[in-house]
Amino acid sequence: MRIIFRSLFVLVFLIIISVSYLSIFGIETDKFNNQIYNKIKDIHKDIDVELKKIKIVLDPFKLKLNIKTVGSKLKSQNENIEIENIKTQISLKSLVENKFLIENLEISTKSLEIKNLISFVRSFQNTPELFVLEKIIKKGFLIADIKLEFDSKGKIKDNLEISGFIKDTKFSIFKKYDIQKLDLRFKYKKNNLSLGNMVLSLNDLNFLSENILFKKD
User: Fold this and answer.
1) CA neighbours within 13 Å on the CB side: how many for 126?
2) Which H/E stretch holds residue 50?
3) pTM assigned to the model
4) What's the rounded Cα separation, in Å, for the pair 114 and 63?
5) Dist. CA 150–CA 39, nearest whole Å
6) Ordered per-residue pLDDT tens for the chain, 217 residues
7) Residues 76, 123 contacting (CB under 8 angstroms)
């Protein structure tokens, strides 16, 4: 009886230690790289991704694995953009059932030159609007956070969220309107685009706007 009790005690102790370690420190692996790769390919078939090893941290209260990788790159043809990190969650239930179902995907970029970002998007989705935008923008930087969610079948839900800020942007329209020092925060969610804390200089006149909302019915 003592042997059984001691064995159970050791087993419970090891489980507690393992769960604590996974919850605090996590582990590094490339086991889920293919899952993340395929989900990014679902966004657009011409987008490729270079992934580093991912870190897995257990959330014992929600019974989920928090997964994060840093220093990745999105690629398309000869263009690429630097990614600060990619995060997602996988439920332990799907893991036990060997489904590895990713529920969401969060992509945070590094500081990107806007012209380079436009060139990247044009490499797989070339539209007249992007062509014009690339021509009128002279400089500027952007940092963005992209949030995607997937349904039970792994398809992207119609609730894409993009937020971030634009810094020190300059562009000219018909050589008549010269806009400089444009700074703003933005958030897009299902046909709604809000711009906030906007500061700019138009033909040497300074403008300030707290919030502007564009809504598509």
Assistant:
1) 4
2) strand 48-50
3) 0.82
4) 39
5) 9
6) 677 777 777 787 787 888 787 888 888 888 778 888 888 888 788 888 888 888 889 888 888 889 898 888 888 888 888 999 999 888 888 777 776 677 888 999 999 999 888 888 888 888 888 888 888 888 899 999 999 888 877 778 888 899 999 999 988 877 777 888 889 999 988 888 898 888 888 887 888 887 888 777 6
7) yes
